Amino acid sequence: MSDTLEHRSAEPAELSADQLLDAYRRMRTIRAFEDRVHEEFATGDIPGFVHLYAGEEASAVGICMHLDDGDTIASTHRGHGHCIAKGVDPKPMMAEIFGRRTGTCHGKGGSMHIADLSKGMLGANGIVGAGAPLACGRALAAKLAGNGEVCVVFFGDGASNQGTTLEALNLASVWQLPVIFVAENNGYAETTASSWSVAADNIADRADGFGMPGVIVDGFDFFAVWEVAREAVTRARRGDGPTLMEVKLTRYYGHFEGDQQTYRGDEVERARRDFDCLKWFRTRVTTNGMLDAAALDTIDAEAAALIDDAVAEARSAPLPGREDLETDVYATY
Ligand SMILES: Cc1ncc(C[n+]2csc(CCOP(=O)(O)OP(=O)(O)O)c2C)c(N)n1
Ligand SMILES: [Mg+2]
Question: Most exposed residue of 7, 24, 46, 325, measured as fewest CB within 10 angstroms of its CB?
């Protein structure tokens, strides 16, 4: 049996007041963004498929708080939260989701292909399991350049069973790459329960077989994620190789917008009531006196206003025109 660790949670006092406010702002912005995309999608004005990250915010933010612009992340089809946590501007993101020319990718990518290299966001990705090999490539480049940069790859419990992910885990260990594998286990791949499809008690247990540390993290607890990520990022930067984190959490919405979720009981209601990462964060930082509730309320209002503006601007922005057909086709190096 593996020696996979259940990790302790950090004390809020290990972060400065500014860091705590920053973490809360990033999580609240993701929640406001996702709740609003849920509403906007129902109007029929958003083209394509949308997969929402609400409920999983502590994972993206607890990890990305340790990264600089030079560090990179590879994301998934459920990527809005990863983007915002990594510093991508929510306004062009919203425009991208509405397919507008002012979008992060000029309206040509949509929800599942948002990328912003200036922020180290290598891209959301519609191909399940495609992120891990990409992250190895980026981490290999960082290792050869000797620049101390790390790459984080987020992937789901479904993607954890893909050959691409398993090959990447092996290669990362063989080459001791500065990469952190983050398995966000939200209990389902589409409608298939991970308790049925993942052949191990925990995804993190597989780390043993690849010769790297594997850690299980409570994904409702920002401080637990932050603590484990701190160790994994430090280890990667030091040149000591990869770590596999399994973050256990829940998504609040369906697999995609439109999913009726007939395969779920009252688990979402319970998670929203008892485990919500934003509520937990608020309780912990206010009961220990690190922050007062008014400062958090202000952030709530600012995030709501930002998303109102983002939607208004996206809706009034132009769609790409015929003249945009032949741009952004080839990358230039
Ligand atoms: C290679 C590939 N196979 C299948 C799909 C269809 N598909 C899209 S999302 C998904 C489930 C992914 O589940 P998981 O990795 O747990 O991520 P989650 O949606 O739970 O965040 C599947 C099977 C795909 N996009 N790519
Ligand atoms: Mg999943």
Answer: 325
Please provide the average confidence, as pLDDT, over all residues in the chain: 95
| Interhelix angle 90-97/293-316, nearest 10 degrees | 40
Sequence letter at residue 22: D
Query: Is residue 78 a part of any domain in this protein?
Result: yes
Write the CATH number for 166: 3.40.50.970
Query: Closest ligand 1 atom, CA of 190?
Result: 11
CA dihedral 303, 304, 310, 315 (to 10 degrees): 170
Q: How many domains does the chain have?
A: 1
| Domain that residue 187 falls in | 5-314
Which segments of the chain are extended strands (E)?
A: 5-6, 72-74, 151-156, 179-185, 188-189, 192-193, 214-218, 243-248
* Any domain includes 151: yes
pLDDT of residue 173: 98
Ligand 2 centroid – CA 192 distance (Å) = 9
Q: Does 6 score more than 80 pLDDT?
A: no
Asked, for residue 319, whether it belongs to a domain, the answer is no
pLDDT in tens, 62-100: 999 999 989 999 999 999 999 999 999 999 999 999 999
**Whole-number Å distance between alpha carbons of 170 and 177:** 10
Helix, coil or strand: residue 93: helix
Answer yes or no: is 329 within a domain.
no
157 C-alpha to ligand 2 centroid (Å) = 5
Distance CA 79, CA 136 (A): 19
| CA pair distance 53, 35, nearest whole angstrom | 9
Ligand 1 within 6 A of 186 CB?
yes
Looking at ligand 1, which atom is closest to the CA of residue 184?
21
